[in-house]
Amino acid sequence: MQLEVAAGVAIQACVLAGRPEVLWGDVFPRFQAYDAADTFLAQLQPAILTDEVPSPAPEVVQVRFGFCHLVFCFCLVACCCSLKSMCPRRLQ
Fold first, then answer.
1. pLDDT digits 0-9 by tens, 66-89
2. What is the domain count for the chain?
């Protein structure tokens, strides 16, 4: 629960500050270090789907594909594939 709140607050702070790149450079790696990337991605998903967070970093996209596979989140994969350059060949 605390990590979900922390992820949500961090995402909203970066969105409101107009600094989404901080999510990829500072915030996401910290969640990965605590083996909580899935928690971060679950909180990030609505911001990506509503275009509040543009163009996730390639390493986030890679993890996000794995996350989607685990939770059967095909709508997020479809959203990701709109970024053709980051989409795996088998999905293009």
1. 555 444 444 555 555 555 455 454
2. 1
